[in-house]
Amino acid sequence: MRPKHWFYTLPLRLRSLFKRNQVEQDLSEELRFHLEQKTREYLTADLTLEEARRRALREFGGVELSKENCRDSRSVSFLETLAQDIRFAFRMLSKNPGFTAVAILTLALGIGASTAVFSLVEAILLKPLPYPSPDRIVLPELVSPPGVNLGSEYFPWGQTQFRLLTRESHPFQFVGAFQNDSFNLTGSGEPSFLDGFRASAEFFPALGAVPALGRIFTAEEDQPGHQYEVILSDRLWRERFSSRGDILGHAVYLNGYAYTVVGIMPPGFEFPRAEEMPSSFNFPSEPQIWVPLAVAPQPKGSPSELAVIGRLKPGVAIEQAQAAMDLITKRAEERDPQWKGWFNTRLVPLTRQVVGDTQRPSELILGAVGMVLLIACSNVANLLLARSLGRRREFTLRAALGATRSRLVRQLLTESLLIAIAAGAVATLIAYLGIDFVKAYGPSNIPRLREVRLDLLVFAFALCVSVATGILFGLAPALGATRKDLASSLKEGGRGCAGIPASSRLRNALLVSQVALALVLVVSAGLLTRTFFRLLGASGGFNPRRVLTLQLPLPASKYVDQNHIVAFYQSALSRLRSIPGVESAGIGETVPMGGEGESTVIRMPDHPVGSQREMPFANYTIISTGYLSSIGTPVLRGRDFLESDTADSTPVALVNAAMERKFWPSQGALGKQVGPASSRYPLMTIVGVVPDVKHISLREETPPEIFVIDTQKQWPSMLNMRVALRTKVDPASMTESVRLAIHSGDPDLPLAKVATLTTLVNDSLSQPRFAMLLLAAFSLLALLLASIGMYGVISYSVAQRIQEIGIRMALGAKRRNVYGMVLGQGARLAGLGIAIGLLAALGVTRLMSSFLYGVQSTDPFTFAAVCLLLLATALLACYLPARRASRIDPMVALRHE
Amino acid sequence: MSRPSDLVQGTLDLLLLKILALEPLNGYAVSLRLRQVSGDVLQVSDGSLYPALHKLEQEGWITAEWKPTENNRRAKYYSLTGLGRTQLEKESANWSRLSVAISNVVKLKEA
Description:
The complex is a heterodimer of chains A (897) and B (111). By secondary structure, chain A is an alpha+beta fold. Chain A has four domains: 3-75, no CATH class; 145-343, no CATH class; 358-537 and 764-895, no CATH class; 556-747, no CATH class. Chain A is built from 25 helices and 22 strands. In chain A, the strands form three sheets. A six-stranded mixed barrel of chain A has the order 3-4-9-6-8-7. A six-stranded mixed barrel of chain A has the order 14-15-20-17-19-18. In chain A, a hairpin with a 2-residue loop joins β7 and β8. Chain B contains four helices and three strands. The N and C termini of chain B lie far apart (42 Å). In chain B, a hairpin with a 5-residue loop joins β2 and β3 (74-80). In chain B, strands 1-3-2 form a three-stranded antiparallel β-sheet. Chain B has helices spanning 11-22, 27-38, 46-59, 82-107; strands at 25-26, 62-68, 74-80. Classes of the chains: A alpha+beta (897), B alpha+beta (111).
């Protein structure tokens, strides 16, 4: 129709729709006026009033018929039928508030929960990275030579290897290396300690990142001696330099050296963030500064831990690139056999790396959500199935009275849609609340969590799935009813005491699958909960109570001489120990839960190395006296470091229990000799064994670790040490006096990463806690939905069997028997569901064993407890219908239709 | 909907539009005018007049308004809309074409 036409007619149609009484009145009055005029006309022709009126009526030819025709002319059938359907649907739904509430709530929970979680996963896993053609960006990772265990899958690139790669004809358009570093920014205001990267010239082009202001490094600046240029993050620029544009070209002081600012990155550029990179790299989570890496053309064998990033040449597929890398490896090995096995690379697309470690919990959660959606849908299917079976008679009757099939379908669709719309509204609320909740309480180490928004597309998808379920299960049985012979179904309709076997089998099957799915979810949640409590109780090899930790980076420009550094720490420690309230203080290269330690190749005279493949590795950690007692680590055997262990006395070392277990399982480590691989450094005598102190997570398998004392140290530098203080009072309250004590030695030193050990432990637990809470919430939801389903099925079957139960009771069955019968029916279904669920759970939980700690994936306790829980829930859900059944009055029941 | 069988399909619409094009009228007056102008040739029962009027109103060709009559009775007066005028022109043209065609056929001489 033309729009102009609608402009005229729409108000009229709406008027006939919503002001029906008015329209009817108008119609009557119009016709009455006509008849009056007509009567008056005939009156003048000498007829009596009575005769005149009759004649007028006769002439008119049926007032009611004419009215009906007028109504038809108003041709509002479509809208009016719709309004009629909606009114009728409202009436039907409000007549059955229990059904309506349960259906809406079930759907809303299913849609809401799945939308919230799909939105999370979409933002975290599926959203493209904010770089141009991110699928072209790859991380070439060095993989351990076969048979060599480095304690990690990845290992860093050396400068020599990187140079070798850049000299070869590699498959990259741009390839850059980067290495994390920290910088002490001084000169303007408070000294601050900033995380950043040293990056080679092609690092930014490889990402496709362009600065918001200024430029990136040139190839000339990426050379030793010319590298004093710096690029700042947007945040640093705004907070520290108040967004001044004239900062470009000016110098800032990093670690005591002047660096010229050449560029400012756009807001949000923080590549690479720790959570997007392999965890073994120990990258910072918010880099603020980038300076040139400046690898020499012929680097000396100095140790360096580089990561490499490349942008594939246009048209080169990742498989071709991998082949090209393999070729480079082969050529390198042919040229220099000592590289054999040490240059194997694996190209990992950046998109996959970014989601890498977080992917699996997300998959776990996605799986849980899928199950909840399934349970919700099958629940609604069951509800609708029961309902439309109950309404067969109504539909048959209406068909008999002349309702067409399509009319019935339209009405059912209207009802389904009404439910879906209401559920959608509630679901939106649930999804919003859910996302806000996760954003507020989710662990901060999930990348891009703060960017999550409700995904409308996903919402629409979930809504469609549920509506489709509703239509399928609501419509099919009703249509089946109309297809049958009307007369016989009218007769049978009310007395369907035996039910329809096929459909009750379907309902039972749906219920059994709900119970099974719920069991899988609850078992998974149970295992994660047990894991979490095991972790809480797990010993990290330290005691986190009342310990303050902080990082104390020394600028390389000022602290050059190793003796100077040691002397500084000694005096700082003695000042710290004299603070009232401090029990003990120490420094160490790491603190527990504070990140991965340095690992190195070691030599042990009693473990001669056969080939390069078998070189032993261990963490190598510098600590001071007082460190172990500060973090609360006891010495298991032997002794702690003493003040008498100095540069002039015998070199000594401590090892952890893992080291002792690995290398001296029977005779013990005490008195054995160990040292760095290079014979430039002296061997040390092991004087003590300590428990395994965990570095990243309480669930980790701690690698072998050697502790050496700072005063006997020559290698490597000790510029970046952590301080640990055990206090008698609340450690957080000590921060200020600690700052004063440090600054009285050097007022330019920044204090970084000040945190109590308890905070560090809690942070490390945030991810397992999050996974546990989320899964627990889902399994509660699943349990709730499954018990609603159970309740629905059992009460429906009780309603169907009222007469049968009545007869049984009339024949002498006791209430007890009726209870038993109904509960037994529930228990049978639940038992079947539990049995199937158990089998499924055994399979599923095996997949999640990497999330578990201290508990088997087949933990019999969890499985048994969950089975009991499900059975109890099922029986509880059956209790109400069973009670109703037992209260049936046989007389009423027999008369019941 | 029942239509007067002796009226060519759609002719009633044309007649009503034409009558209302002259002046706004109430239903009764329309029926009077119909009788006046066509004598007794075009028999339109009052019962089928109103559905036809309502249909035209729904189509947007005429619009209705409640107004007092000369002797102060409230009555529903119909008048032509702009759309109705266009429609009237279209239907009149159609009618002329049709009637010319039919009379041409009717005037053919038998051989």
